[in-house]
């Protein structure tokens, strides 16, 4: 253990259990809502330098997404449909791949702070407004059928890709869209989880290619410490999700969106 702590180069040995607790709480949150690991995980940036903290958040978020999606794969399969259909995940993924470079270009030209601050504030306001809105206030069935087209899926996916490019939160647009069109918790999760997982893996591969120096001995030591608690926390979140109805899940996702927005604002304050 002492060798591991020496490798971590942390100022205070108490930071290790604090980080483990933060990532475990983030994993419970992610397992329950299907997204938003970094909303709680952003607290780790209080302890870790931002480049290392962001890299660790990305890897742990991918691990949590893969674990929860694998756990729920059987029960989500009837709601997922064929990937290539207009109501499947593929059009969203194509849009996301198109939008990601745009988000990265915006990040390069405008900088992360104003973009993340604007998105964070927007998510907090949207979540607060939606929580006060009647639960049945969604698009009517005939309108919903019209908007559930390949074009709308590409646009929503592209919006998520843009956001993922500058804020590492690709699922925000799809989560908001699911709420607008009134999808059930199974339908929503069957779309958002594979979309987020794919986009996060793509973003992680880009980070590895651009900044391989982040993945040093300190990173791997932290990952070894944080991963078991992350997976256990995610399993607990999935178990709570299974006991949650549609109305409860709607509230959970809106709270998750609001906290994700607050997490982005926290990142702006800490970086």
List the helices and strands and how they pair.
Elements: H1 2-8, H2 15-33, H3 37-41, H4 50-80, H5 90-110, H6 112-132, H7 141-147, H8 150-167, H9 172-181, H10 185-210, H11 217-242, H12 246-270
Helix pairs in contact: 1-11, 2-4, 2-11, 4-10, 4-11, 5-6, 5-8, 6-12, 8-9, 8-10, 9-10
Give keywords.
80% helix, mainly alpha, disordered N terminus, single chain, 271 residues, 12 helices
Task: Write up what this structure looks like.
The chain is mostly helical and 271 residues long. The chain is globular. 80% of the residues lie in helices and 0% in strands. The protein is built from 12 helices and no strands. The N terminus is likely disordered.
Give the terminus-to-terminus CA distance.
Answer: 30 Å
Rounded average pLDDT: 80
Q: Using DSSP, what is the number of strands?
A: 0
Q: What characteristic shape results from the CA principal axes?
A: globular
Rg, please? Answer: 18 Å
Q: Helix coverage percent of residues?
A: over 70%
Structural class: mainly alpha
Low-confidence residue ranges = 1-5, 139-143
Largest sheet: none
Estimated share of beta-strand residues:
under 5%
Order of helices and strands: HHHHHHHHHHHH
């Amino acid at each position: 253990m002492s060798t591991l702590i020496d490798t971590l180069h942390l100022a205070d040995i108490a930071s290790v259990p604090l980080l483990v607790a933060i990532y475990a709480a983030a994993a419970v949150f992610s397992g329950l809502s299907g997204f938003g690991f970094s909303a709680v995980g952003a607290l780790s940036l209080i302890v870790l330098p931002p480049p290392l903290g962001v890299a660790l958040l990305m890897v742990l978020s991918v691990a949590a997404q893969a674990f929860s999606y694998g756990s729920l794969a059987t029960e989500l399969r009837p709601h997922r449909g064929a990937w290539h259909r207009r109501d499947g995940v593929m059009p969203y993924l194509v849009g996301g791949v198109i939008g990601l470079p745009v988000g990265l270009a915006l990040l390069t030209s405008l900088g992360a702070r104003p973009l993340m601050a604007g998105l964070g504030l927007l998510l907090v306001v949207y979540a607060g407004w939606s929580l006060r809105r009647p639960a049945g206030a969604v698009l009517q069935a005939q309108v919903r059928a019209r908007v559930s087209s390949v074009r709308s899926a590409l646009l929503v996916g592209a919006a998520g890709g843009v956001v993922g490019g500058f804020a590492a939160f690709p699922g925000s647009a799809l989560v908001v869209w699911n709420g607008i069109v009134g999808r059930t918790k199974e339908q929503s999760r069957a779309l958002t989880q594979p979309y987020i997982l794919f986009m996060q893996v793509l973003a992680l591969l880009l980070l590895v290619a651009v900044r391989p120096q982040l993945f040093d001995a300190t990173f791997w030591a932290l990952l070894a410490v944080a991963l078991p608690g992350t997976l256990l926390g995610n399993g607990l979140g999935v178990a709570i999700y299974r006991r949650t109805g549609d109305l409860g899940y709607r509230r959970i996702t809106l709270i998750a969106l609001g906290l994700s927005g607050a997490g982005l604002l926290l990142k702006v304050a800490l970086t």
